[in-house]
Amino acid sequence: MAGMTVIVRTIARLLFPFTFLFGAYIVIHGHLTPGGGFPGGVIIAASIVMLILAYGIERAQKKVGFLHAEVLESVGGIAIVILGLFGLLLGISFLQNVFPLGELGQLFSAGNLPLLYLGVGVKVTAGIILIFYAMLFAFRGEEE
Amino acid sequence: MDFNYIIAMLLVALGIYCLLLKRNLIKMVIGLAVLTDGIHLFLISLGYRLGGTAAIVSGEMFSDLPGFAAHAVDPVPQALVLTSIVINICILALALSLAIYAYRHYGTLDPSKIRRLKE
Amino acid sequence: MQSEKLKFDFVLLSKGAIPMAKGSLFVTFVCLWLAWIALTGSLNFQELAVGAIVAAFVAMVSYGLLFRGKMREKFDLKRWGYALAYVPAYFWAELKAHANVIYYILHPRMPIKPGIVRVPTKLQSDFGITGLANAITMTPGTLSVEVSEEDSSLYVHWINVKAVEPEQTSKQIAWPFERFLRRIFG
Amino acid sequence: MILLGILIVIFGACLLCALRAALGPTAPDRIVAIDALIALMISALVLLGVYYRAPIYLDVALVYAFLAFLGTLAIAKYLEGRGIET
Amino acid sequence: MIEIIAYILLGIGAACAIIGALGIVRFPDVYNRIHANTVVVVGGVIVTLLGASVLEGLSSYTLKILIIALFLFLTNPVGSHAIARAAHKSGVKLWRRSVVDKLEEEKP
Amino acid sequence: MQRALALGMVVAIGVLLVFTVSTNLLPFGSFPSRQIGENFDNSIGQQILENAPQQTGAANVVTSVVWGYRGYDTLGEVTVLFAAVVSVVMIFRAFGRRE
Amino acid sequence: MSLEFLIQNALLVFLFVLCLIAIELKDLLYSVIVLAGASITLTVVFFMLQAPDIAITQAAVGAGVTTVLFVIAISRTRRRE
Asked: Residue A120 belongs to what domain range?
């Protein structure tokens, strides 16, 4: 039977949405509180790793498959580049801010920084999940 | 007393010791992790200001930006270390993958034996 | 083998094996939104709006995991009353267990008689068994080592074994928690 | 000042845990010691956050409270003798 | 008044932490050490966190500290259970003066 | 012999590092006065601290350094992450095909 | 030297000792376990140096990724050094 005991599985399924939400909180509040794209993405990826450890990799792959992760990583990278190109199109320079700055300390502030962090968060999440999938899929069932 | 710098450099020396003298690829990766930890500690200590606060505007600092600038620690090394941690984790994953690959191919984790088998 | 796998398929990462409850998505959304408000600690309009979007997204990703079954049963007032009464009982058990184990630690000769005993339980649901096992583990002196799903019993490491028979162990270890948990989780 | 005194006591407890982590004969002993060390360090982080009077610092402790059991789970699965992926 | 309660809680937490750590060093085998680990986590850490939240009064600290305590309370027993099960499966013997081992007898 | 040489080298490197660090740097905790000369405000970190909240509008100054003042560095970091992921996936795919 | 710096220096020595133990232990699994303890000690040191950004990144990496990666690698190769 795949996975660990019923206790671990129940707690993992209870904690998964909250860990996901906390990662999203770290990503979105990257310009106000400590955190940002990378730690938030790692936390979201760790919530998937929690499902892998508790249920086994087949069940986790129904949530986020290998192809999903590959596509998501590309989407994150492309989003960053397009956000950078906005500045170039308006004649300033690459990655320059073109959005209004807003009031200091509000959630909608700092121009394109939160959007860039969102892209980085998606990319890091998909990247870490891909690393885990690749390392777990290779040499399955031939341990000594 | 520059205790932080000394400990950071001792960590770096410990990492180099592990990289040079240990005969196991995964143990060498652990040494690499220790080495980068030392470097991060050194860089962050370099930007510290006595009695400083974090480089984040919060609380009552919003109305006192000059006071914030006079008390906060240096943000530039922190950004540098942030980049460095990401690259560190990439290197870690890649090195561990290569170690697994080498073990499957040569049947050993000893770098000197791997070299001997190739000849 | 395949059928056995299917029998334990209460994990439900895929939709469709057991029909989803109707209000599950909405209740998950509300829980996650409350968690967001607790995390940010402000009632600003922007925070609330972004929190609603994020909570809706996370709820759509994971709404099969948090709640199962009929939603009306979850909001039975009697259950919440028992849950409220559970807190002081749990606190009292925790206090006694701590005093016990601290006495063992500080005693110079350490008069312990450890052993693993079987504790049968009548709880059926996942959350019930998990709550009982976690409560047993979180009181020092008892530790749930293995859970057996066939005959629904726990194997508990006990620091000072007073009885080996299943009836006695069930009465001494599990009953203070089980009498509340069977009402809360069913 | 009282907070710093309590911090010193907590770090003394951490020292004892590290002693068991260095000595412990088997792997589960060391994991138990490191688990206790992580929990103690979480409380130290929270106390430091209260001492510096900055509520945004508490996110760091929250990260460890969420993710600390992942490593334990992975090592437990490895010790059980089957692959981590099943 | 409220500060006195907070400092009493913090003192209890620190005492439990050091006693539990002493137990981790003193107890003879893994399963007993997990009991001491529970003393550290519940008696030491969670009581300390409650004391810190009482010390701050009702502010944005309190809710976050309570969330930390709640999640520590949820995750730690899972880790303890998993590691105890793994230890028993990987053949770590009980202490020699243990009384009974039903798990070994009934599920070999 | 080789081992002893390596050990001696490690000790030499450690002594050199500790000596350099404990003599050639200003004492720990003296951040804005790392600049040579009288004018302390010339330090890059100090200038960023003074201007960043108005220029980028972010409360977290580290964020405004990471994606505002040093955006290209971070773009490079993201590229490194991408390269690492692609390498890991390719290593295991190549190995799987060979078996 | 104030009490705060005394605590910080004690933590640094603790960090060094943990890293030394992690490198000198013969069993790789033990090394990885002790390295997790070193990681959280480094997190607390970063926290005391007023760098919460770095502390949170180090916490996420040290708690979520590094240990699991090393355990996967050990389970695919050999445990003894």
From this structure: 6-143
Say whether residue G4 is in contact with chain D using an 8 A CB cutoff. Answer: yes
Closest CB to A111: pick one of F57, F72, F95: F57
For the stretch F63-83, pLDDT in tens is: 888 888 888 888 888 889 999
* Same domain assignment for residues C38 and C104: no
**A to B CB pairs, distance under 8 Å:** 22
Quote the tokens at residue D59.
Answer: 């996110």
Give D-chain residues touching B58 at CB under 8 angstroms: 54, 56
b/e for B63-72, b at 16 or more Cβ within 10 A?
eebeebbebb
Task: Give me the tens of pLDDT residue by residue for chain C, a chain 186 residues long.
Answer: 333 333 333 333 444 444 455 677 888 888 888 888 888 877 888 888 888 998 888 888 877 777 666 666 667 778 888 888 888 988 898 888 888 888 888 888 888 888 888 888 888 778 888 888 888 888 888 888 888 877 788 888 888 888 788 788 888 888 888 888 888 876
Q: Please give the C-alpha separations between residue C167 and each of B6, C119, C144, E68, F46, in angstroms, as whole numbers.
A: 62, 8, 17, 37, 71
3-state secondary structure string, G5-58? HHHHHHHHHHHHHHHHHHHHCCEHHHHHHHHHHHHHHHHHHHHHCCCHHHHHHH
For strands C115-120 and C142-148, give the pairing: unpaired
**Residue C157 and residue C113 share a domain:** yes
* Geometric angle at alpha carbon B77, from B71 and B81, rounded to 5°: 130
Dihedral-angle region of residue C117 (phi above 0 means left; psi in -120 to 50 means alpha; beta otherwise): beta
Answer yes or no: do A53 and D83 touch at CB < 8 A.
no
3-state secondary structure of C113: strand
Within 10 A of E65 (CB to CB), how many other CB atoms are there?
26
| Residue A1: inside a domain | no
Q: How far apart are CA F9 and CA F29, in angstroms?
A: 31
Chain E: list its partners (3+ Cβ pairs within 8 Å). Answer: A, C, D
In A, minimum Cα distance to E74 occurs at A11
pLDDT tens profile E58-97: 777 788 888 889 998 889 999 899 898 888 888 888 888 7
What is the DSSP code string of A23-53? HHHHHHTTTTSS--HHHHHHHHHHHHHHHHH
Same domain, C55 and C88: no
Separation in Å, CA of A55 to nearest CA in chain C: 8
What is residue F38's DSSP assignment? Answer: S
- Could you tell me how far CA E92 lies from the centroid of its own chain? 21
**Given an 8 Å threshold on Cβ–Cβ distance, is D28 in contact with E87?**
yes
Return the biggest CA–CA distance within chain E.
Answer: 57
C24, C50, C72 - which closes a domain: C72
- Side-chain half-sphere of C46: how many Cα atoms within 13 Å? 9
CA dihedral A82, A87, A88, A93 (to 10 degrees): -130
Q: State the Cα torsion D15-D16-D18-D21 to the nearest 10°.
A: 180
Task: State how far the Cα of E80 lies from the Cα of D31, in Å rounded to an integer.
Answer: 9
Whether residues F65 and B94 touch (CB distance < 8 A) is answered with no
User: Are residues C155 and E43, on separate chains, in Cβ contact within 8 Å?
Assistant: no
Report the number of distinct structural domains present in chain C: 2
- What is the ipTM metric for this complex? 0.90
Domain count, chain A: 1
Half-sphere exposure in the Cβ direction for F4 (13 Å, CA): 1
Tell which of C18, C52, C72 closes a domain.
C72
Could you tell me if C89 and C179 lie in one domain? yes
Q: Give E 48-77 residues with CB within 8 A of chain A.
A: 71, 74-75
Q: Residue A34 and residue D62: Cβ atoms within 8 Å?
A: no
Q: Answer whether B3 touches G (CB < 8 Å).
A: yes
Contact A34 B56 (CB under 8 A): yes
